[in-house]
Design goal:
3 helices, five-stranded mixed β-sheet, alpha+beta
């Protein structure tokens, strides 16, 4: 639980696409989690495409903290998710993020931009 308080959240471009952004969850100069998302400022909508937290910290609430951080950074954005794994689907349900299983609901983002995401991520463990 001490690690939860000491994790710092950094915004970073995601290497997955030009429009995707990432929140990197860093604990003592080590990435322990990542949340990948896309935001359309035209529609004021956003989609969370991936949440990955290192195994020892998965039940610590870091995913919840990261989603709350996104909501605070983008207060006018309506968030959805396209998370497919059981743990990430549970997070989306807890945070009341509607599922966007059919792809991005925003016509301004490229079609299929989030397709195939939500699987295992790149967080270094």
């Amino acid at each position: 639980m001490l690690a939860y308080r000491d994790v710092v959240i950094f915004h970073s471009p995601a290497p997955t696409s030009e429009r995707a952004q990432s929140l990197l969850l860093v604990y003592i100069r080590r990435v322990v989690g990542e949340v990948t998302y896309e935001v359309c400022e035209h529609c004021a909508s956003g989609v969370i495409t991936q949440v990955d937290v290192a195994t020892p910290l998965q039940d610590s609430g870091l995913g919840t903290r990261a989603v709350a951080h996104l909501r605070a950074c983008y207060p006018e954005v309506t968030w959805r998710s396209c998370l497919a794994q059981r743990m990430t689907r549970d997070l989306a349900r807890r945070m009341r993020l509607p599922n966007d299983g059919a792809g991005l609901s925003c016509p301004h983002l490229p079609p299929g931009a989030s397709a195939g995401r939500g699987g295992p991520g790149r967080a270094r463990r």
